[in-house]
């Protein structure tokens, strides 16, 4: 597996893992990290609180969104970014979104889906079980890495 930007595999996650499988694996590899569901205010899907080492995922969103929110907050956790007041944009957030997309998308499956659905981001997102946002982030990353 190509981890791209990662010096070493940060997280033993693979793109096809369900939300439940991710939660199970975290119990083993990160026993000090607390992951729970909650009713989060506003449009927040997830937060990471550095002080209590806790990831909270909104309980009302779909499993697809939960999966993406969990990986997103895990990337913040690995970098030590506190998002307990929500993500606030900027460079850290861009990095997190890029890394989240790379963790959630298998390059071969993405290439296949892109051909199959004629680059329609909604259909590709449904096929790969991620949000459209993750697809857009992945596309931007692909574009940047070709340009670099
Ligand atoms: Zn974030």
TrEMBL record:
InterPro entries: IrrE_HExxH (IPR010359)
The IrrE N-terminal-like domain, residue ranges: 52-135
Name the UniProt record assigns to this protein: IrrE N-terminal-like domain-containing protein
Organism the protein comes from: Bifidobacterium breve MCC 1128
């Amino acid at each position: 597996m190509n981890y791209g930007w990662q010096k070493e595999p940060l997280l033993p996650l693979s793109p096809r893992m369900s939300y439940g499988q991710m939660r199970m694996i975290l119990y083993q590899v990160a026993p000090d990290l607390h992951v729970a569901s909650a009713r989060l205010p506003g449009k927040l899907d997830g937060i990471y609180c550095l002080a209590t080492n806790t990831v909270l995922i909104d309980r009302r969103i779909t499993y697809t969104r939960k999966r993406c929110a969990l990986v997103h907050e895990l990337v913040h956790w690995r970098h030590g970014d506190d998002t307990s007041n929500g993500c606030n944009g900027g460079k850290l957030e861009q990095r997190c979104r890029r890394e989240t997309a790379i963790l959630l998308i298998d390059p071969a499956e993405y290439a296949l889906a892109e051909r199959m659905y004629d680059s329609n981001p909604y259909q590709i997102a449904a096929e790969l079980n991620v949000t459209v946002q993750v697809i857009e982030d992945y596309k931007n990353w692909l574009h940047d890495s070709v340009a670099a």
